[in-house]
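On clarity, I found the account of how folds are encoded harder to follow than it need be. What matters is that the chain and its backbone geometry are given together, residue for residue. I therefore recommend that a typical entry be quoted early in the introduction. An entry of this sort, consisting of the sequence and the corresponding backbone structure tokens, reads as follows:
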Amino acid sequence: MMNSNQALFVVKVILASGAISLAIVTGGPALNIPATSAIALTLVLLPPLLIAGILGLRAWQQH
């Protein structure tokens, strides 16, 4: 069973996801980003690399 804290967290994540989606749909066309493979590769690889860096730093600090 989900308690109220977990349910609230799920609602917050859904609302944040919707807000980000709306921002991308409405503001995305205003960004004049060229469609190149380098930009696509950067946008695909940047989030996992940032998360890996943050998690690696946290693991290093706890050790």
Residues 7 and 54 are 27 Å apart (CA to CA). The mean pLDDT is 91.
